[in-house]
Amino acid sequence: MTGKIFVSAVFATINLKNGLVKLARGGHCPIILLKNKNILQLKPSGIALGFNCSNLFENNLEEISFELNQNDILVLYTDGVTEARDQKPRRVWNSKIVRDIETKY
């Protein structure tokens, strides 16, 4: 990749037998987790892929793990969704999804 081209990503594995989630984030939007009626925005450290050709990516990538229990909600979404704007035009998606999750669950 050259110039201003880069890719953000989240990589996650979920063990369906024990609910263990392991994930890493490379410059992507926060991961949203509703756990015990609390909304958490998970932001493990990591930079976008292709942003830097040195060992900066590997040295800053953080993997986190947690247990996903019954009734927990894990929200993974594309960063293209966060570009949605209202008529002002203001970006509205991230605060809207958090508010929707709070009121509906």
What does this protein structure show overall?
The protein is 16% helix and 30% strand. With 105 residues, it is an alpha+beta fold. It has a domain at 9-78. A three-stranded antiparallel β-sheet has the order 1-2-5, with no helix packed on it. The protein has a three-stranded antiparallel β-sheet with strand order 4-3-6, with helices on one face. A hairpin with a 2-residue loop joins β3 and β4 (38-42). The mean pLDDT is 81.
Level of helix content? 10-25%
Rounded mean pLDDT is 81
The oligomeric state of the chains shown is: single chain
Order of neighbouring strands in the sheet with most strands: 1-2-5
**Termini separation:** 41 Å
Q: Tally the helices: what do you get?
A: 2
Taken in chain order, the helices and strands follow as EEEEHEEH
Shape: flat
**What would you report as the Rg, rounded to the nearest angstrom?**
16 Å
> How many β-strand runs?
6
How would you sum up the major sheet?
A: 3 strands, antiparallel
Strand content: 25-35%
Low-pLDDT runs: none
Label the structural class. alpha+beta
